[in-house]
Amino acid sequence: MSDRPSRFTPRVFSGIQPSGNLHLGNYLGAVKRFVDWQARDVETIFCMVDQHAITVWQDPADLARSTRELAAGFIAAGIDPERSILIAQSQVPEHAQLAWILNCVARMGWMRRMTQWKEKAGKNAEEASLGLFAYPALMAADILVYHATHVPVGEDQKQHIELTRDIAAKFNHDYGVDFFPETQPVIEGAGTRVMSLRDGSRKMSKSDASDAARINMTDDADAIARKIRRARTDPKPLPETAEGLETRPEARNLVNIYAALREITVEAAIAEVGGQGFGQFKPLLADLAVEKLSPIAGEMARLMDDPAQIDAILGRGAERARAIAAPILDETYRIVGFVRPA
Ligand code: TYM
């Protein structure tokens, strides 16, 4: 937690897009951290951000399936929907309602500087949706509508959390209030930037054309072992020190994955496996990955057999989330000068 005193009660929020498969990067960079937060004495809210997903085209049937599958992934990985609040974004309309106000606070120049916007819109910005451009303001609303103080994310989301702080600070300044907290990004552990298994300079991502580049949380034991066996590496054995990994992106990635799965530091991982050739290390890593991930895949499949139960969990989560968000939105409306119903 932050060492700075704050008048805000600590509250954790984070979200994942239900587009495509949940993969090892999402698991190690995000979901696994969420489970750690849930074990602490703090309120935790986790969200399937379906409204973010449609900033690029989603087939409706696939979106619905991915949303339920992501919920199943959260639960299978250890999120307890009683302890945490588990929601689908579109079931809590306060996110989008606050987003409109934050759209009016955020500046065009701030949004244009967002790396994700530049990467996703690319040279074809004129054809990108308006939603894709406004995406980070909706993300700020996701967080601020709960006055969330801590947001566990992978490294690639850091810039968006910094923008959330800028938007909150400008709102507080413009309206002369101390209403929205200064949210902290929490980017911890060895798995905050899991790279592609085919190219150590690229992030593992759901949009990679090659399925061999990522481990999906639904992959079976054979697929996991095969992908690790075929992962790109260099010909040298693993170094004896963590510094020795600095110039070797593929080796570093596999050691990071090992450390994150074992829940140890990279230094501790190197103390265990330093000096091994990949012929020895890859089978070890494959066994570890199968041991940790296969039970999650099994549990996801079991949960997906009962979509009505998932829908009931999300419905209950939305009720609990709205009980927190509605008064914060209402107060925001008053601050802005919207006349409230008598
Ligand atoms: P998304 O759906 O791309 O990713 C979900 C989470 O997984 C992390 N992640 C990774 N971590 C390590 N290595 C990787 N290769 C990797 N790929 C993804 C992401 O950092 C993220 O934590 N904009 C967000 C979703 C969002 C959100 C929010 C997050 C919407 N509203 C509010 C936090 C708070 C996104 O697209 O994440």
The largest sheet has its strands arranged as: 1-2-3
Question: Oligomeric form of this entry?
Answer: single chain
What series of H and E elements makes up the topology? EHEHHEHHHHEHEHHHHH
> Residue ranges: pLDDT <50 for 5 or more in a row?
none
3D shape: globular
Strand percentage: 5-15%
Largest sheet: 3 strands, parallel
- Helicity level, as a percent range? 40-55%
Average pLDDT reading: 96
Can you describe what's shown?
- The chain is mainly alpha-helical.
- 53% of the residues lie in helices and 6% in strands.
- It is built from 13 helices and 5 strands.
- It has helices spanning 24-38, 50-53, 60-77, 94-103, 108-112, 115-121, 130-144, 158-175, 221-229, 249-262, 266-273, 278-304, 307-336; strands at residues 11-16, 43-48, 85-88, 150-152, 184-186.
- The protein has a 3-stranded parallel β-sheet. A two-stranded parallel ribbon has the order 4-5.
- Helix 9 (221-229) runs antiparallel to helix 12.
- The longest helix is centred in the last third of the chain and has 30 residues, at 307-336.
- It is globular and about 70 Å long.
- Residues 13-17, 25-26, 29-30, 49, 52, 139, 142-143, 151, 153-154, 156-157, 160, 191-194, 203-204 line the site of tryptophanyl-5'AMP.
Topology record:
Blueprint: E1 11-16, H1 24-38, E2 43-48, H2 50-53, H3 60-77, E3 85-88, H4 94-103, H5 108-112, H6 115-121, H7 130-144, E4 150-152, H8 158-175, E5 184-186, H9 221-229, H10 249-262, H11 266-273, H12 278-304, H13 307-336
Parallel strand pairs: 1-2, 2-3, 4-5
Helix pairs in contact: 3-12, 4-7, 4-13, 7-8, 9-12, 10-11, 10-12
The structure holds tryptophanyl-5'AMP.
